[in-house]
């Protein structure tokens, strides 16, 4: 089994301002036991900024992007060196991969990253993955390591994604404010009600909270990957979760996982525009598995080019899916509601009869 273990800053620091090296040793021990048992482990590690701040003696710095990138640049080497030393205690080698959203959006770079990750795993090396915070801007960032870990799980063709945090899992209410809040042990459907239960980052040390973990769980489970949100400080939590023990909140994978290209669409480029569909188009997509035709689009929002990802909206506004368009926003505007056989007349050319082919479309349902 390939297991992706995402370790948040709050897990690595224990809620303090310093990396908790004693606990990191324990996490490494658990990962080493998995490797020894025949599993393959990928670690998505936060903590570069915290490591950089610690190395500099906790200076009082502005909370702007250049200073965060400076701390990440200083701390990333320290963090990897520490992981390298700790895994080395168990005779394991590590390999660092720093990714940005751009690496996941471009099909060739996506495939290259997948090949590198697969090669590391085939040689028994523990991949250590983090976002390349030292150079990433808001335009090319995934934004948080929860969503990055879901995309890494897809890259690695993992069966299980563990999102380890400072909370025991997802609760029916905020357990810090409501003593009657109960742990949700299993989730089969992620809906609007569940999203309302998610809050922000508890510790203030990291970039993620329960909301980003739900997003990550939704992405991974659609690719057929089981996901668990659990406390990173539980006793032997990694081994217990891999063994199937009921710890934390487990998200069941969708039984019919998406094929490879659609996994890339779901995990890769975020939508840069929106297409409002009419009822007929929705029925054709959902009930018949059809492609999206220009005549089924009632409104266009945003600026996008051919090949960009766009969100598909039902008439009531809810997000129906994501797809890669074959026409730009300007071109689609010119053929809005036009029958496919009239595209060439309206544009003076055509790129095919469909606005989005069904092979380039993922329905969220």
Automatic annotation (TrEMBL):
Would the keyword Cytoplasm turn up in this protein's UniProt record? yes
Task: Please give a single GO biological process term from the UniProt record.
Answer: L-proline biosynthetic process
Stored SMART domains: PUA
Q: Where does ATP bind?
A: 6, 165-166, 207-213
* Entries under PROSITE patterns matching the protein: GLUTAMATE_5_KINASE (PS00902), PUA (PS50890)
Which residues are involved in binding substrate? Answer: 46, 133, 145
All copies of domain PUA, residue ranges: 273-356
Any single Gene Ontology cellular-component annotation: cytosol
State a single Gene Ontology molecular function.
Answer: ATP binding
Q: One Pfam family this chain carries?
A: PUA
Chief subcellular location: cytoplasm
Where does the protein end up? Cytoplasm
EC number(s) recorded for this UniProt protein:
2.7.2.11
Which catalytic reaction applies to this protein?
L-glutamate + ATP = L-glutamyl 5-phosphate + ADP
Q: Which family does it belong to?
A: Belongs to the glutamate 5-kinase family.
Q: What is this protein called?
A: Glutamate 5-kinase
Lineage here is: Bacteria, Pseudomonadati, Pseudomonadota, Gammaproteobacteria, Enterobacterales
Q: Which gene encodes it?
A: proB
């Amino acid at each position: 089994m390939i297991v992706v273990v995402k370790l948040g800053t709050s897990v690595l620091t224990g809620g303090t301002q310093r990396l908790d090296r004693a606990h990191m040793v324990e996490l490494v021990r658990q990962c080493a036991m998995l490797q020894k048992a025949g599993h393959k482990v990928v670690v998505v590690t936060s903590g570069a900024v915290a490591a950089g701040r610690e190395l500099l003696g906790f200076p009082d710095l502005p909370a702007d992007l250049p200073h965060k990138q400076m701390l990440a640049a200083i701390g990333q080497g320290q963090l990897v060196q520490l992981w390298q030393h700790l895994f080395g205690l168990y005779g394991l080698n590590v390999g660092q991969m720093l990714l940005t959203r751009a690496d996941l959006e471009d099909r060739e770079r996506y495939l290259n990253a997948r090949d590198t990750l697969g090669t590391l795993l085939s040689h028994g090396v523990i991949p250590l993955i983090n976002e390349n915070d030292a150079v990433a801007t808001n335009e090319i960032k995934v934004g948080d390591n929860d969503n990055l870990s879901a995309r890494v799980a897809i890259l690695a063709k993992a069966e299980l994604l563990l999102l380890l945090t400072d909370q025991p899992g997802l609760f029916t209410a905020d357990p810090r404010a409501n003593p009657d809040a109960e742990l949700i042990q299993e989730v089969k459907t992620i809906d609007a009600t569940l999203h309302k239960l998610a809050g922000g980052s508890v510790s203030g040390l990291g970039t993620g909270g329960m909301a980003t973990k739900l997003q990550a769980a939704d992405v991974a489970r659609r690719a057929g990957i089981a996901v668990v949100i659990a406390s990173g400080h539980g006793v032997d939590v990694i081994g217990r979760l891999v063994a199937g023990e009921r710890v934390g909140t487990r998200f069941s994978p969708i039984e019919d996982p998406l094929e490879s290209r659609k996994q890339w669409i779901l995990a890769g480029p975020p939508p840069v525009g929106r297409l409002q569909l009419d009822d007929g188009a929705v029925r054709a997509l959902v009930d018949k598995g059809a492609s999206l035709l220009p005549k089924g689009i009632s409104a266009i929002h945003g600026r996008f080019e051919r090949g960009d990802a766009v969100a598909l909206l039902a008439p009531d506004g809810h997000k129906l899916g994501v797809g890669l368009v074959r026409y730009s926003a300007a071109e689609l505007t010119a053929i809005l509601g036009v029958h496919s056989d009239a595209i060439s007349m309206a544009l003076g050319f055509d790129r095919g009869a469909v606005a989005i082919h069904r092979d380039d479309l993922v329905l969220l349902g």
